[in-house]
Design a protein that fits this description.
This protein has 213 residues and is an alpha/beta fold. It contains 9 helices and 8 strands. The chain has a single domain, classed as 3-Layer(aba) Sandwich (Rossmann fold), CATH 3.40.50. A 5-stranded parallel β-sheet has the order 2-3-1-4-8, with helices on both faces. The chain has a 3-stranded antiparallel β-sheet with strand order 6-5-7. It is globular, with a radius of gyration of 16 Å. Magnesium ion binds next to helix 1.
Length: 213
Amino acid sequence: MRIIMLGAPGAGKGTQAKLISERYGIPHISTGDIFRSNIKNGTELGKKAKTYMDQGQLVPDELTCDLVVDRIAQDDAKDGYVLDGFPRTIPQAEALKHALEGRGESVDFAIDVDVPDENIIKRMSGRRACVSCGATYHVVYNPPKKEGVCDVCGSGLILRDDDKPETVKKRLDVYHSQTQPLIDYYQKDGVLKEVDGTQEIDTIFSQIQKLLG
Ligand code: AP5
Ligand code: MG
């Protein structure tokens, strides 16, 4: 099953992608997590990506597309994957389509997690993230068992550098201008599914499971 998660920053793409990955036994591939892990490890890619991410801008397609195309060609992705945060531009969607067509494959589901902008800023300030394994928590809505420690891998949790309110506003603008058009794109391809992302995490996940059949 090849799944794409669509939705604004903070809509809950990562939260739901992780649940889907566990339930269906397919890898969760998040470009944001890949960039953050490169930043943490001080790689050249990480240094380049950081300048864009800290300003709420998108990392250029040239740095992003090949990375994902290589990742989905790995062995653990042969039965599918859940892509979180990619594609985010029409050229990225075209690059993905092209790579998949070359293998006689296509996207099965594009799940749009819909949350109005007003709800987003509130969520972001309470978010805590694990840079080691990509798990995401919220101090109120989804707290870890032990404060500041990842339930999954035991690493320390951080506040993301791009979760400051001004940067979140910029990310929302970028989302509306560059990423939202993908909703129409996947609607035309007949694979779009929508869920109301303002509901409880478990309710949204139940609806997603029904959509995936
Ligand atoms: P990325 O890491 O993908 O960030 P994003 O799209 O801005 O989305 P977030 O990760 O912030 O939110 P999410 O939807 O995953 O929500 P989450 O589940 O954490 O990208 C970061 C940056 O990297 C980009 O700005 C860009 O610079 C760069 N980048 C990445 N991919 C790129 C690409 N393809 N091309 C170019 N640049 C790229 O949930 C948010 C919070 O809400 C959490 O605290 C969570 O616990 C809580 N929550 C979740 N669901 C609920 C719920 N139902 N009710 C209440 N709280 C909830
Ligand atoms: Mg995320």
